[in-house]
Design goal:
Two copies of one chain form a homodimer. By secondary structure, the first copy, chain A, is an alpha/beta fold. The first copy, chain A, folds into two domains: about 210 residues, Rossmann fold; about 150 residues, Phosphofructokinase domain (Rossmann fold). The first copy, chain A, is about 35% helix and about 20% strand. Chain A contains twelve helices and 15 strands. In chain A, strands 3-2-1-5-6-12-13 form a seven-stranded mixed beta sheet, with helices on both faces. In chain A, α1 packs parallel to α10. Chain A starts with a strand and ends with a helix. The interface between A and B is large, with 87 and 87 residues.
Chain lengths: ~425, ~425
């Protein structure tokens, strides 16, 4: 295999704080590889490919490409779009037209499904193209990899906020009795569980953790809360937005579904839990709903995570340059004598549309907390800080020049 | 005036990220002053004084007292308690019993009212005691001071999160169209307005800012949002939890009131605004409600703010040691040639129970944004970062030894 050609980089789904580390690594390594000629980026994911919104990333300054390493959001723009049968022919034509021979897609489960389909499209069409996925998700629910880039930073932010707001709760009498933090994660509790990293002793937050892996029981929940409150005079609850009852129904769900048919979760979980408590006891309950700050808080990100995201981008290009296709980069872990991650890969069809939830061995018997096994797993992933250039007290982020030019045209709402 | 005696330090109301900087300054300077013998702290504010929950702060290690400078929450514990007529006699007896001759209260408007009443109590009783207030509030609504310790750090956190989540919103098509950030501040919009510091160009968040100083109009709001959306394809809204309609009714209020008779605001504002939008247009709206993390995010605090909080604590002791009483420390500003703050003081009765809201000159004519005057005012207050010791990826906070011993007894809920 010695064909040469252009490469195309795109990202998809909800961003993470460090997703652009992967983009930075992909661009840098693509520019280094002699088999790769022009390095294109698609604006707004696979949708941008279909719309032929491609920019030449080789024209970006070194400063901007480096700056991606501390810039949150999706620097190339992202989308949630499920490919239609009618799209494939068009995609292939566009790949051919622009001589795209390397395709890199940074995303989660759904995106890996998209990447897999593109890989299969190339294969069945006899079109030489290497397709490699780069994992990203704050949910940490991608299988076949020890953990996913993006998770460590979100976990660190959650744990930090719980440590801080936990002290706030502990220190003030007669303001709030109960704090509820609602955490992202549709079906996997990894990010919710990360709150436990904040706790060093019995008094400290969090006291109760509710995960989507086990059925939520309203009565048991209220009892749990009152038991902690009776002991300490306060209780800090952390709950996943994706909690379900024993019949598998979401505790708080909106009616809408997204492009992939997933139920959309609103801001209802925390307030629902609040109602459960206040209906049973005269307690003051305060809800914290961090929303999208969980997946964009680069200001409190993990250096371990940022580095791994960057290295995963570089590795994807190296694998593709060796002619490999239909794979996703993975992170492997060596914990002895100390944490060390190395890069591997797995077949896309082992990842596509599959979710890795928390094993029951990481959840306590009462289903209201985690076990030490989880702490051992998660602790190394939040280590280390990154340095962000500051101006007038705020972080300075970069924007790709090509994105700036395309953005206004692309984002105009369809009317 | 040359009496000597013990001093008592207490804090009250909701904490700020840097409130313990003031406590640290108060302790250090009190330990230095020859007129002050034992340095006491009251656990849980004025409630702790009434309950005689006093700890000897002179027994704390230098390391702990320094550590307060990067520890959020109320290190001494706080309360929301309005003094009853029957409390005064008891208070005076306790002051006499422990020979309290210097009383320092760190808090906001309500706390300054409490401090003022204690000052008057001492005066009318002919009891020699210096009472000095130290300002703190993320709401920045204390009059007679250019700004309040605690505000700069909360403002920096809000602006940082808006910068980050703004990129998140901009970068992703078909996930969310509209983002709403709900910000603390019952009647003053200072903290909500701080979101504007994040914005450098037309595309960047925030696009619309709604402040409690001006009446909120539902129809105009929806129009504003749709106008921005039509131009950009997304819109980022920041709104104060304390928005009121033209009749002065809160847009989102719970029925309960706190000890001072203030209406308690629930988590309802953002979701109410979301409904306003979704009833008029088929748009995806996402709410971020940072809750108590706004007043405890020391991990992203302002060095300017932390220093001023610390210096205000020191200054309070110096003023008291000169025999001054019935005053609150203030911050004065000199902006030319560059920002420099100095310390002053004002009479407590000029502060007690009064609120400083934003002047209309800082709010735009359309009542949906701020003016440059506000940016010039706020920008210097968020400057500089503080360094926090880290362990395993998380900040390390301190706890007062005396608080540890008292806490479990004190927090036990009244049954």
């Amino acid at each position: 295999m010695s064909w040469k050609g252009n490469c195309l980089i795109a990202q998809s789904g909800g961003p993470t704080a460090v997703i652009n580390n992967s983009i930075s690594g992909l661009i840098k390594e693509s520019l280094r590889q002699t088999r790769i000629k022009t390095v294109y980026g698609a604006i707004f994911g696979i949708k941008g490919v279909l719309d032929e919104q491609l920019i030449d990333l080789g024209l970006e300054s070194r400063q901007t490409i480096d700056g991606l390493r501390y810039t949150p959001g999706a620097a190339l723009g992202s989308c949630r779009y499920k490919l239609q049968d009618s799209d494939y022919e068009k995609l292939l034509a566009i790949f051919k037209k622009h001589d795209i021979r390397f395709f890199f897609y940074v995303g989660g489960n759904d995106s890996m499904d998209t990447a897999n389909k593109i890989h299969q499209l190339a294969q069945t069409s006899g079109y030489d193209m290497a397709v490699v996925g780069v994992p990203k998700t704050v949910d940490n629910d991608l299988p076949e990899t020890d953990h996913s880039p993006g998770y460590g930073s979100a976990a660190k932010y959650i744990a930090t906020v719980v440590k801080e707001t936990g002290l706030d709760l502990q220190g003030i009498v007669a303001s709030s009795d109960i704090a509820i933090l609602e955490v992202m994660g549709r079906n996997a509790g990894w990010l919710t569980a990360a709150a436990a990293l904040a706790k060093n002793n019995r008094e400290e937050a969090p006291h109760l953790i509710y995960l989507p892996e086990v059925a939520f029981d309203r009565e048991r929940f209220v009892n749990d809360v009152l038991k902690v409150y009776d002991k300490l005079g306060y209780a800090y609850v952390v709950a996943s937005e994706g909690l379900t009852d024993k019949n598998g129904n979401y505790i708080a769900a909106e009616k809408a579904t997204d492009a992939f048919g997933h139920v959309k979760l609103g801001n209802g979980l925390a307030t629902t839990l609040k109602e459960y408590i206040t209906k049973e006891a005269n307690l003051k309950v305060r809800c914290n709903i961090l929303g999208t700050s969980q997946r964009s808080a680069i200001h409190n990100s993990s250096r371990t995570d940022a580095s791994e995201a960057y290295m995963a981008g570089i590795e994807a290009v190296k694998l593709a340059a060796r002619g490999m296709s239909g794979i996703m980069v993975t992170l492997e872990r060596k914990d002895h004598p100390y944490y060390l991650s190395s890069l591997g890969y797995t077949d896309l069809d082992r990842v596509a549309n599959r979710e890795k939830t928390m094993p029951l061995s990481m959840i306590n018997e009462e289903h209201n907390n985690i076990t030490k096994e989880f702490l051992d797993y998660a602790r190394p992933l939040i280590e280390g800080e990154i340095s962000i250039p500051m101006h007038q007290g705020l972080p300075v982020f970069v924007t790709l020049e090509g994105y700036k030019r395309m953005n206004l045209i692309s984002r105009k709402p369809a009317s």
